[in-house]
Specification:
alpha/beta, Rossmann fold, twelve-stranded mixed sheet, 19 helices, about 35% helix
Length: about 600
Amino acid sequence: MSEDAFAGDQPAGDPAAGAAPAGGPAAVTAGGGAVPSDLAIAQQSAMRPIEEIAAAAGINAEALELYGRYKAKIDPAQLTVPASGAARAPGKVVLVSAMSPTPAGEGKSTTTVGLADSLARAGHRVMIALREPSLGPILGMKGGATGGGYSQVLPMDQINLHFTGDFHAVTSANNALMALVDNHIFQGNELNIDPRRMTFKRVLDMNDRSLREVVIGLGGPAQGVPRQDGFDITVASEIMAVFCLATDLADLRGRLGRITFGYTYDRLPVTVSDLGVQGALTLLLRDAIKPNLVQSIAGTPALVHGGPFANIAHGCNSLIATLTARRLADIVVTEAGFGADLGAEKYMDIKARVADVAPSAVVLVATVRALKMHGGVAMDRLGEPNVEALAAGVANLQRHIRNVEKFGITPVVAINKFGTDSRAELDWLLDWCAAAGVPAAVADVWGRGGGGDGGDELAARVLAALDAPHSFKHLYPLELSVEDKIRTIVQEVYGADGVDFSVPALKRLAEIEKNGWSHLPVCMAKTQYSFSDDATKLGAPKGFTVHVRDLIPKTGAGFIVALTGAVMTMPGLPKVPAAMRMDVDPDGNPVGLF
């Protein structure tokens, strides 16, 4: 994957190049006129005061902390709604995932919001649980994390730009840790930390390739101890993963203390608790750890909280938000980043091991456009009807379907409708799904969302899936070695022949075994565009090997990251960043934000 192709978890096309935004077609017409931009739709939508949304969701006033008129934080410790028991059972989880993404756009967040609105429209008590967007990709390549068209969460401009400051808090906690580590080394290094064996980096919520490799501490003895360092993007920080997997404040503190940031000269791991600063880091995250409450255009309550990418991290919103939503709603619609080979697998094998959030239904989002691209059609020809290319590209969707079935759940396929889709193409795809034994529905939630009927058929399929028997299971037991866990994912999910470990990765495997970390699940860092570790291999490739170049133990988050191929943890900006189109009007309103 080239660095300039990195777009966070919203790999949309560039409108300047004529591509459609993720979730809906730029050239769709409604009533004879062009559909307005996502930003224009959001600005024209009337929001209800957040107190009304909270009251309708059953959130008591004592648990609500206002951040202006239209967003708030929820303190789960102050909620009076019972977690479970005779009063009500926890809500069922619907996990929205997708086929392998393409520059054509799939619209996973859009489908998530539209489906939730349609379920609410059908009379169900529903709550949305999404991740927060990262500022770097927003300024870099077009694509946010609030949905699109008439299936958005609001206020979209504020959510996409700073929001309630959660990412800044994570950034501050991460960099405070590294400032304290380097100060410890400078002040005498009582812990015997080896500066050459640091595994933790500073972070920034920005795409900045210049910071990937840096040297710090230059300028003489008073400026610190010189060492090679580097920056990751904030969403790749282990503190972000800890933030999203903690079940409460006490668990957050414990996980922060277990983070391994480096090794001693004796090759022994050094943790945050060894340094004694887990309390300070927890204090910096004390307010950020509370989930953020907003609303969809249709008024469905949404918790938007946490944001690890799925190609370099575990790709799920915060566990606290998901658990809070289960306390408040009968159905929780959440998503996992990128295709089901990444986000969904990590949801099942990492997040669902930590707490009771296993999905009762899974939705796989697909589009005719993206399937044709996997079938070999060029970007500028996707608007042309081509059932043959659709048939060639559907192998990608088929592999994702079979992968979800390995977790004991038959998915529902959501065909996110674009205005250029022909009736013949949509009918062919529906017939193919029926022959494959999976329920499917065409969803027009981009153009007919916001409480409209565009997602009613999809909602009916999902409700039937929620009532259908299933037997959820993880892909692998934790007792397997790390090497065998990786091999299982690579062969069972990606369809590879095997896995090749570099010499550094083999050394790391030995360290993991020596330090007693072999029981941890694996978080694969891999390109999102292909089942393989080569972004150019579209469709459902066969006969390939996945190359693991390094392994990074994330002992606070509780998983081992396997770095494959050329995937990066600090993206770069494209030649023409999306920021070039952004501005404010004379009244301070945003311009050019999607």
